Amino acid sequence: MAGLTGRCLCEAVAYGLTGKPARTTICCCRFCQRATGGAQLILPVAPMSDFHLTRGGAASYTHVPEGSGKAVHLHFCRDCGTRLYMTYARWPDMVGLFGGTLDNPTVVRFDPTTTKQMGWMAPAPGVAMRHTAGVRICN
Hints:
This protein has one domain: Metal Binding Protein, Guanine Nucleotide Exchange Factor, Chain A, CATH 2.170.150.70. The relative contact order is 0.23. It is globular, with a radius of gyration of 15 Å. The chain is mostly beta strands and 139 residues long. The strands form three sheets. The chain has a six-stranded antiparallel beta sheet with strand order 3-4-9-8-7-6. Strands 1-2-5 form a three-stranded antiparallel beta sheet, with no helix packed on it. Strands 10-12-11 form a three-stranded antiparallel beta sheet, with no helix packed on it. Mean pLDDT is 82; it is low at 130-139. Helix content is 5%, strand content 40%. GO terms for molecular function: carbon-sulfur lyase activity; metal ion binding.
């Protein structure tokens, strides 16, 4: 999975990842739903040292979630508004890539230890699920 690339809708901002993501998370918490405008966020997370912008520059919005109380920085294209990646006060050496911005999203692999799905979603193939407070969590 090394050599991932991605871009925004208007292609003004593009990025590359020289290494391999440390993990990929599927999250459906309210923060991730609001950040994406969808039911879930698919987020390959990688070392910041492997990430680089290859075209343009991203604007950012900082949000402090109630859960952790630590700032999350959402980076997006100032022209088309596509959210491209997240950086974290909590993990300053990591970057999370919005999965929908990947040029080849089919290369993403899911980590059963970090994957959360809503109860109405079908489980990822080969992943055992358990229920916790209405959310299915991968075992």
